Amino acid sequence: MRCRIIYNEDVYNQASASLNGPELPSTRRKGFLTEHAAPFSAFLTDSFGRQHNYLRISLTEKCNLRCQYCMPEEGVQLTPKSELLTTQEIITLARLFVKEGVDKIRLTGGEPLIRPDVVDIVAQLYKLEGLQTIAVTTNGINLARLLPRLKEAGLDAINISLDTLVPAKFEFIVRRKGFHKVMEGINKAVELGYNPVKVNCVVMRGLNEDELLDFVALTKNQPLDVRFIEYMPFDGNKWNFKKMVSYKEMLDTVRQRWPDLEKLPCEASSTAKAYKVPDFQGQISFITSMSEHFCGSCNRLRITADGNLKVCLFGNSEVSLRDHLRSGASEDELVQIIGEAVGRKKKQHAGMFNISQMKNRPMILIGG
């Protein structure tokens, strides 16, 4: 992970000049920039004081898998290519958000690694001053092949989706083959030094909740963070309450096997409740979006592949940044539009039962 600091250029230049030199000595410079870091953008701060420094950008609506919880069985109507964000538009918007205080960008999809220029996008994002972390969420099918180039381009963190350790069940859940490619991708990430390698597992009753302990066991000898995600409702995924396995139920199951399971500290804005089996190299986490939401500390914004800003994953309110960008909106106008959208963000989502009745996009058209 890189350390990049947003600072007030004028203050720094004035301080440098006062020392009768072109710049502060390197050791003093680092401390000075930390001390004089620019205040966080008012445009990315909502009416509840939440500062949104984390942006998720969907690179494509397409995917090479058909996961049951993500894509409707009948598929989705894809947006025409001309209406999707171009690479330059993605970088333009990313630069704007980073300038306002975003320090983490996650690339999602669809499946982001099927976009032909994904390595180039990572390399261009890496050049953005102030951006500390570039991450990707992937299904892992193309990961082993692309990861060396992605790492060289500047990729800092990886989340890999894997909902079962049984190859036949994998094919049932994702409606495609590819289990061994995903495992190869996980192993390649470990080999290249990513630590932790995050493994996302959506837990669904009657399908894979019987594998919880097997997933925990994966963390014994590898630097994995297995993240158990509560099943969430989106258009077309046939969600119902009975399929959802709650965080507390999962935690009880794990504790029966490992009663000395330790809770780990986490950042205020973290979506995950983290735990560790003593002496295990890795850890596990629980994403409790349904049973114990974390809306109060949410710091995330999303841009869909067709250029819409979503301030809440479960909200159906969207603003087209693409349309404003293509109509020639200035940077100041775009920031104003973003700020107004962030300002309208609600205190919390509507709750699992209401969400399941609301009109929203299928997950694949939002971007994890």
From TrEMBL:
<keyword id="KW-0547">Nucleotide-binding</keyword>
<dbReference type="InterPro" id="IPR058240">
    <property type="entry name" value="rSAM_sf"/>
</dbReference>
<keyword id="KW-0342">GTP-binding</keyword>
<keyword id="KW-0004">4Fe-4S</keyword>
<keyword id="KW-0408">Iron</keyword>
<protein>
    <recommendedName>
        <fullName>Molybdenum cofactor biosynthesis protein 1</fullName>
        <ecNumber>4.1.99.22</ecNumber>
        <ecNumber>4.6.1.17</ecNumber>
    </recommendedName>
</protein>
<dbReference type="InterPro" id="IPR010505">
    <property type="entry name" value="MoaA_twitch"/>
</dbReference>
<dbReference type="Pfam" id="PF06463">
    <property type="entry name" value="Mob_synth_C"/>
</dbReference>
<dbReference type="InterPro" id="IPR006638">
    <property type="entry name" value="Elp3/MiaA/NifB-like_rSAM"/>
</dbReference>
<keyword id="KW-0411">Iron-sulfur</keyword>
<comment type="subunit">
    <text>Isoform MOCS1A and isoform MOCS1B probably form a heterooligomer.</text>
</comment>
<comment type="similarity">
    <text>In the N-terminal section; belongs to the radical SAM superfamily. MoaA family.</text>
</comment>
<dbReference type="InterPro" id="IPR000385">
    <property type="entry name" value="MoaA_NifB_PqqE_Fe-S-bd_CS"/>
</dbReference>
<comment type="function">
    <text>Isoform MOCS1A and isoform MOCS1B probably form a complex that catalyzes the conversion of 5'-GTP to cyclic pyranopterin monophosphate (cPMP). MOCS1A catalyzes the cyclization of GTP to (8S)-3',8-cyclo-7,8-dihydroguanosine 5'-triphosphate and MOCS1B catalyzes the subsequent conversion of (8S)-3',8-cyclo-7,8-dihydroguanosine 5'-triphosphate to cPMP.</text>
</comment>
<dbReference type="InterPro" id="IPR050105">
    <property type="entry name" value="MoCo_biosynth_MoaA/MoaC"/>
</dbReference>
<dbReference type="GO" id="GO:0061799">
    <property type="term" value="F:cyclic pyranopterin monophosphate synthase activity"/>
</dbReference>
<dbReference type="GO" id="GO:0051539">
    <property type="term" value="F:4 iron, 4 sulfur cluster binding"/>
</dbReference>
<dbReference type="InterPro" id="IPR013785">
    <property type="entry name" value="Aldolase_TIM"/>
</dbReference>
<dbReference type="InterPro" id="IPR013483">
    <property type="entry name" value="MoaA"/>
</dbReference>
<comment type="pathway">
    <text>Cofactor biosynthesis; molybdopterin biosynthesis.</text>
</comment>
<feature type="domain" description="Radical SAM core">
    <location>
        <begin position="47"/>
        <end position="260"/>
    </location>
</feature>
<dbReference type="GO" id="GO:0046872">
    <property type="term" value="F:metal ion binding"/>
</dbReference>
<keyword id="KW-0456">Lyase</keyword>
<keyword id="KW-0949">S-adenosyl-L-methionine</keyword>
<dbReference type="GO" id="GO:0005525">
    <property type="term" value="F:GTP binding"/>
</dbReference>
<dbReference type="InterPro" id="IPR040064">
    <property type="entry name" value="MoaA-like"/>
</dbReference>
<comment type="similarity">
    <text>In the C-terminal section; belongs to the MoaC family.</text>
</comment>
<dbReference type="InterPro" id="IPR007197">
    <property type="entry name" value="rSAM"/>
</dbReference>
<dbReference type="Pfam" id="PF04055">
    <property type="entry name" value="Radical_SAM"/>
</dbReference>
<dbReference type="GO" id="GO:0061798">
    <property type="term" value="F:GTP 3',8'-cyclase activity"/>
</dbReference>
<keyword id="KW-0479">Metal-binding</keyword>
<dbReference type="GO" id="GO:0006777">
    <property type="term" value="P:Mo-molybdopterin cofactor biosynthetic process"/>
</dbReference>
<keyword id="KW-0501">Molybdenum cofactor biosynthesis</keyword>
